[in-house]
Amino acid sequence: MITLSLIGIGTGNVDHVTLAAVRALNEADVILLPRKGEAKSDLLDLRRVLCEELLDKAASTRIVEFDLPTRDGERPYLNAVDEWHDAIASVWAELMDKHLPNGGRVGMLVWGDPSLYDSSLRIAKRLTDSGRAVEVNVIPGITSLQVLTAEHRIPLNALAGAVHITTGRRLRERGWPEDAATVAVMLDSGGAFTAIKQEGVYIWWGAYLGMEKQCLIEGRLHEVSAQIIERRTMLREAYGWIMDCYLMAREPLL
Q1: Residues 78 and 127 in one domain
Q2: Taking every annotated instance into account, which residue ranges of this chain make up the domain Tetrapyrrole methylase (predicted)?
Q3: pLDDT tens across 144-164, in order?
Q4: Is residue 254 included in any domain, yes or no?
């Protein structure tokens, strides 16, 4: 039996990692760290730093790095993602067979929380659906939305209001969600908010949340929209990658 722990590590800040996550890391026989290419080597470096700082020096935990398969950008999005997840599941299975042939505990470090716009749970399900003896544990982590609201010192929702969480792709395709007063947007390739009517909307934007290079912008959307796009472009060119998200509201949050 393999025990696979999907460990939410927040946004890369060691102070945001929970005690439960630290315990799960130290109980693992093997921790798998994905390499996502040179442009995102910072993400691997952060995972390494977290392991160095959080693993007990006497622990026998082994760190195994692997190359993450890439998604075919030419295929229809959902089909490409489905095939990509299949490929990742195959790599995970091979690594488990190689490094834990007699069973044991595997740890995977997941940015934010495994439940929010992350593929780890769906990939893990492929292992269990294939008949493999894998038990999946989830250790929750701090999400980028939590860090975003904390850094901007705002609540996530208006008083007694609901929050609609969506992606940049869906915001571009469908516009502002019907009946939504507050909208949180993740996985935006850049500037999806330009697809909506900007007057009367306030935005709180953040990139590299929880990291040393964190960047925040807030204001009336029609006034700061161009500034966010310009800053985002500059940051991506400087670091080779970017993680950002934002919250927009038509009603006061405070």
Answers
A1: yes
A2: 3-224
A3: 999 999 999 999 999 989 999
A4: no
